[in-house]
Amino acid sequence: MAALVVALTLTVAAVAAVALGTYKGSLYQANGAKIANAPATVTVVGAKVTISAPRLPVKCLSPNGTFTAPSAPIKYVFKGTLKGNAVSGNYIPPLGGTGEYFVAKGSFFPATKTFVGKVSFVGECQGTSTLRAKKA
Fold it and tell me: Is the pLDDT of residue 125 over 50?
């Protein structure tokens, strides 16, 4: 019985809670280079997570059928639910209906109070960046 109590205590201690509040960071390209003027914010309130970035770089569909046409950055907004230390899913804005949506997949690291994940926009234009943020 004592061994079971010790095992359960260690399991609970190993799953640390995500610190509530705001995490501030930046967007990065696939090669790891920081994207200039691309701040990002992750807000955690209870089990709800909101990720926003005012300038997510995207490319639009070109005449040859590839996503290579230049486009102005879009405002990225994702609202989802925290599952343990992870956030993952798709978010369609309330007035969406165009088939476009936001995607987020990432993890919080409670020991270092950081968040790392991929943020994407899917639609006529598409873009994916890595988000790295620290607790503010």
Answer: yes
